[in-house]
Prior knowledge:
The protein is α+β, with helices and mostly antiparallel strands. The chain has 19 helices and 18 strands.
Amino acid sequence: MGTMSEVISFASPGEFFAPVSSDLIDGLIAQYGSMRKRIDEVSDIMVGEIAGAVSYFFEGNGRDNRYGMPSVERIFEKTGAVAALNSAYWSKAMHLTDVLNYMPQARRDEWNKSITEMTCPEFEEETVRTTLMNLLNMRSKFLAERVDGIFRGLSGEHVTNSPSGFGKRMIVAYVLNDYCGYYSSSKCGLINDLRCVIAKFMGRDEPGYSASEGLIRSLKHNYGQWVSIDGGALKIRLYMKGTAHIEVHPDMAWRLNATLANLYPMAIPPEFRQKPKRTLKQFEMIQRPLPFAVINVLASMKQAQRAIKQEGDWRNQYRFENVTNALKFDHYGEVSKHVIAEAKSVLESIGGAHCEEGWYQFDYSPNDVIEEIVASGCIPDQKAHQFYPTPDSIAIAAVELASEGATQDMLWLEPSAGQGGLADHMPKDRTTCVEISALNAKVLELKGFNVTCADFLQYNGQLFDRIVMNPPFSEGRWQAHLSHAATLLNKGGRLVAVLPASAQGKDVLPGFNITWSREYANEFAGTSVSVVIMTAEVQR
C-alpha cells in the first residue's frame, strides 16, 4: 500500500500550515511560568487567618449564588488552579498554528474535551514543542483521517448510506438537536471536514473549522430543499428533524474514494476509485467558487444603522435606527484589502451601491441573496450568462421609447433580465422577467417582479404588448434572442432592444418597421462595446 504522499500529490508540507515562531512559544512559556509562580504564592498565602478574613468577602458578595459557596480553602487549592492554567495555555498554544483548522473533527473534539475538562498535561516546554511538531507532521494523515471520519460519522440508521464509498447519497443524523433548531458543532464539523477535503481537491483555500455552522444556519431557511454548496461540488438538503442529506459531485466522489481506499484497500471497489467517464445528469458542472475568506466577510456583514441625535437627554444623546436594505462590513480593519476589494465587487454585482456613510444600499432586502452566495460560493458568471447590467442612461432611453403610446393595461416583458436594469424602469405590477441565473432571479423576486427562472430561448409564455431587452451579444446570440422575443409580441405591440452597433441598418426582423437610435460608446462596465437601441413594430 502506497503512502498518502504517493496517493494525494497535493498534501505537501508548505500548503497546510503557517510556521510556529519559536519566539511565540518562548513568550508563551514565559507567561505560563510567571502565572504558575503567582498561583503558588496565592495558594501559600490563602491559609489560616487570612483565609478567614477573605471568607467575609465571599459571604458578603456571594449571596446571589443559589448553590452556596465552597470553602475558601477549596477555592484556593493549587491542583485545580494549575489544571485550569494548563488548559488555558494549551488552548493558546493550539491557536499559534493553523493545526485546529486541519484536524479531523474527531481529533478536534478530543482536544476540546481535554481543554474543557482540564485534563491537559503539564504545560512544559519540551512537551509543548514536541506535541505541536508532531501535530504539524501529521498533516497528510489528517487528510486521510478526515475522509475516514466523514464516512464513519454517517448515520447508521439509514440504509442509503453506502458501505462502498461516496458515490451515493449520504445521510448525517442529529445535525440539529431534536426540534429546537440548535445545531451540533460536532456534526457541523463533520460536514466542514468534507468541505475542507473537497476544497483541497479544488485547489481552493479552506474554510475555518467553524465555517459550516453558518452554512447550517442558512440551510434552516430552506428545509427540505436541495441547496448547491461550494460551486456545485456537493448538495445538501436539511430537514427539520435535524437530518442532513448530502450528495457529492461525481468528480469529487472518486477522489474521496481513492483517499478512503488508501486506508481500506479491500473495501472500496475499483470502479468507485476511478474518474467518471461522464457527469451524472442531476449534477451541473462545478463552478469556480469565491475564496472562503471573501465568503466569511460576506457572511459576517451587519445591518447598517444611522445615529439620530436626541434633544433633551444628555445621558443618551443618540439613538440608532436600522437603515432599510443596507448592510455594512463587520471588523473591516481585520481583513486584507484584497479580500475586502473582492467582497465589495460581489456586493456591487448584486445591486449594492456604496454610500458615503460607509454601508452598501440595495433597493431590495439583500439578506437572502447573500445567504445563497455564502452557501453556493458563487455569483453569476458573466461569461457564461453574458450578464452585463444595463447602464441607467441606456435603460431609461430604451424604456422611454417603449412607453410611447403605452396604456395602463399593457403587459411588459424583460427577457434575460439579469437583476432588472431595464425592468426597474417598467411598471412593476405588469412586468414579467425571464432570467436564467437562479441568483439573479432571486434578486428580481425580492424586488417584487413576476419572475420565471429559465433560459429565455426555451420560454413560451403569454404574449406581451411591450418587450424591452438587452440580450447577450456573444457569438451572435442577440439575433436568436431577438427573433424569439418577436414571437411573444402581441399585435400592435412594440419591441425595444439594446443591440451591438454592428446590427444597425440590417434587416434583423423581417416584416417589422425598424428605427435606430444614436450610437452609445463605452457605456457598459467591463467591456468597450458600442450599442444602439432598436425599436420594432409590426408593419401594418
